[in-house]
Amino acid sequence: MKLTPYLMFRHGKCREAFAFYAQALGGEIVSTATYGDMGPDIPEPMRPFIANIHLVVGGASIMGADAMENPDGQATTSVNIEVDSIEDAERIFAAMSEGGEVRMPLAESQWALRFGMFDDRYGQPWMINLVKPMP
Q1: Which residues have CB under 8 Å from 36's CB, separation 6+?
Q2: Each residue of 87-130: pLDDT tens digit?
Q3: I want to staple 14 with a disulfide (CB 3.0 to 4.6 A). Which of 50, 54, 62, 77 is the partner?
């Protein structure tokens, strides 16, 4: 299991910020997906914005996205829990989201076999992520 900071950006600044982080930290952006990549149900104004980006620097990672629910609201940081199996994803999601607020139910996404978002019972944002194998 890995715990990875997940940065949420307002005003569509995610792509620009991660390009800067990659250059400044000497890292590599290993994957990027826009909201438009997620399917036709995404509102047109959000389609070009980043839904998920992953930067690797040495043995460390940070991930991020443009805030979809409130693009003009406050930027936030979540902790992404990267798991090794569907069973772990389901178990940890159920345990940690109990008594909290599920923001995105655990399901398959463009980049993950399982992905879900929630605020725990203390109001802290978390993500569960079982990343699809990279080619």
Answers
A1: 42, 46, 47, 48
A2: 999 999 999 999 999 999 999 988 899 999 998 887 888 899 99
A3: 50
